[in-house]
Write a structure and sequence with these properties.
- The complex is a heterodimer of chains A (334) and B (213).
- Chain A has 334 residues and is an all-alpha fold.
- Chain A has helices at 2-18, 22-45, 59-86, 90-112, 116-134, 140-170, 181-187, 193-211, 218-226, 229-254, 260-284, 288-308, 311-333.
- Chain A has two domains: 1-114, Up-down Bundle (Methane Monooxygenase Hydroxylase, Chain G, domain 1), CATH 1.20.58; 140-334.
- Chain A is built from 13 helices and no strands.
- By secondary structure, chain B is mainly α.
- Chain B has one domain (2-200).
- The chains are: A mainly alpha (334), B mainly alpha (213).
- At the A-B interface, helix 5, helix 6 and helix 9 of A face helix 5, helix 6 and helix 7 of B.
């Protein structure tokens, strides 16, 4: 099914690129998002089943995938209205829709990956496709936003990759590490705690750009501001999810080790700093989209705080994510 | 032989710290690509055709030929040959950077040697950490966007060496996906860099200050 979904994605993206009639083009995207919902349902029926050795739909991934599918569907409908209102050219719409399909597929990949390396590759995929979506208006401001976004994201995600490699150093002396979530979790207790800490710090810093939290939040705000409103809404919701999930996967893998308390402290510091920074900026900012972007950052900080509170906090974090995404999407589009 | 490659690689970091000429930066990044190819070939324990093609594509073709070629084109099109600011100032800065580079390499070496790990390739680990730190440092001290992109490539090269140092064994598919991602991100960055050259007077970060709170 994964292979079929990948093929459907490529065909839909190709069609959206070459079909220049706007109504048909929007139809292709909406149809794809419906396929994505069906795919989500299929994966739900095959929960915890390992596919192609590196894909495993677990409960958390499936909840996030459902959010992507549903919000992706509504965003596609809203983009149609947006494009009509702004009288976008056929070329702009087809490029946007074509890349939008790839963006959704990359996000789905992040949620379904069972391998840290593959998840990293999909996250980098969201950066590349996200860049084209941000550069929608093709003016000076959009160019500034996209350059900063791609550059900072690339550097940050490279640091996250270094964090994944440090796992190898932490795992020296144990059995060979294949970077699968389950095997890392099983081996984590035998790993070197100092290197696990280094790995977690790099990963948190690297993926903070996707979650839009301290320290790499700036470019995320610009990206949400300069992209079309429906895309800004998605960046504030499902892209935040991707960053959160990436951080949470590592947190969950290391949580059975002696560094759990230390990780909680790091998450609390990151969460509190994110809330403080966003609150400070929220007082100054007048632009409505930027206010929403900083509000998302504040919520992301709260989500990290919830995770740091332990198991009861996980449920709170999950509920917060789900409600925040629906409301944020509505505000952005309105 | 691989030690020689590592020493030359570390030498390129010193030269990057001193240089004021964009052409030199581009040449050095190409040389680093060739050195990484040499190192990767030396570290290839078994002859696997797919693995060999992947290494060839990532180092020799991509890092050694395609990226420097693209950067040459962009610097030529946007008429960027020498970094801005007066030469004396840059030379003073370059001298400080050389001292910092020496310190970073020295500390990385001490740090790597203190790791009591038989599996860790210390020479590559030293070079990897040095390249990553220096890449981030080059980004912070330079304003030119081309140098930012080159510094990002230095960090990428550091990560490549890190993967060799720790003996990472990712599945082949994941390796291919990572290679594709890195390739695409550099391509996307060069496309936007070119656009910046067309839209703005200079390719300096001073030009990109409209979006702020």
């Amino acid at each position: 099914m994964i292979v079929l979904f990948a093929i459907v994605t490529l065909i839909a993206s190709g069609l959206a690129f070459f079909v220049r009639k706007q109504e048909i083009n929007h139809g292709i995207v909406i149809l794809f998002t419906l396929c994505s919902i069906a795919f989500n349902f299929y994966e739900y029926l095959h929960i915890d089943e390992v596919q192609l050795n590196m894909i495993k739909p677990d409960a958390l991934g499936l909840i996030f995938l459902a959010i992507i599918s549903v919000l992706g569907f509504f965003t596609a409908i809203h983009y149609r209205t947006y494009a009509n209102k702004k009288k976008e050219t056929d070329r702009t719409v087809s490029i946007h829709n074509s890349v939008y399909i790839l963006f959704l597929a990359a996000l789905a990949g992040v949620n379904l990956s069972n391998n840290f390396g593959l998840m990293w590759a999909f996250i980098e995929g969201t950066t590349l496709t996200g860049a084209v979506l941000i550069y929608h208006d093709r003016d000076k401001l959009a160019l500034e936003a996209v350059w900063k976004y791609v550059f900072v994201c690339s550097v940050s995600i490279t640091l996250a990759f270094a964090g994944i490699l440090f796992l190898s150093v932490a795992a020296q002396g144990t059995n060979s590490v294949d970077f699968q979530f389950d095997s890392i979790r099983a081996l984590a207790e035998q790993m070197n705690p100092t290197w696990l800490k280094v790995s977690f710090l790099f990963i948190l810093t690297g993926f903070s750009v996707k979650m839009g939290v301290f320290p790499m939040f700036n470019v995320d705000i610009d990206a949400k501001d300069m992209s079309p409103s429906p895309i800004g809404a998605l960046f504030s919701s499902v892209l935040l999810n991707a960053g959160f999930l990436a951080i949470f996967r590592f947190y969950a893998a290391f949580s059975g080790t002696s560094i759990q308390g230390w990780m909680h402290n790091v998450l609390i510091i990151t969460g509190v700093l994110s809330i403080l920074f966003s609150a400070a900026y929220l007082i100054r900012v007048k632009n409505y989209k930027r206010i929403l972007a900083y509000s998302s950052m504040e919520h992301a900080g709260l989500i990290l705080l919830a995770v740091a509170m332990g198991k009861a906090g996980y449920v709170a974090a999950l509920l917060h994510i789900i409600f925040h995404h629906w409301l944020n999407q509505a505000f952005f589009i309105k | 032989m691989s030690s020689l490659f590592v020493i030359i690689f570390l030498g390129t970091l010193f030269y990057l710290a001193l240089s004021v000429n964009v052409k030199n930066y581009i040449n050095l990044i190409g040389i680093q690509g060739l050195l990484l190819f040499g190192i990767a070939i030396f570290e290839l324990h078994e002859l696997n055709v797919v693995h060999l093609i992947l290494i060839l594509a990532e180092t020799l073709i991509f890092k050694g030929i395609i990226v420097p070629g693209l950067l040459y084109r962009i610097s030529k099109r946007n008429k960027i040959s020498v970094l801005k600011n007066n030469k004396t100032h840059r030379k003073a800065k370059g001298f400080n950077m050389v001292i910092i580079t020496a310190l970073v390499i020295g500390l990385s070496f001490v740090f790597s040697h203190n790791q009591q790990d038989a599996h860790l390739e210390i020479q590559y680990f030293t070079a990897a950490i040095s390249a990553m730190i220096m890449g981030i440092l080059f980004i912070t001290v330079n304003k030119n966007i081309i140098i930012h992109l080159i510094s990002f490539l230095v960090i990428e090269n550091g990560i490549f060496l890190m993967a060799i140092a720790v003996g990472s064994n990712m599945p082949m598919l994941v390796n291919a996906a990572i290679l594709l991602d890195i390739f695409s991100s550099v391509l996307v960055l060069t496309v936007f860099l070119n656009r910046i050259g067309q839209f703005f007077q200079d390719v300096e970060t001073d030009q990109l200050t409209e979006l702020k709170d």
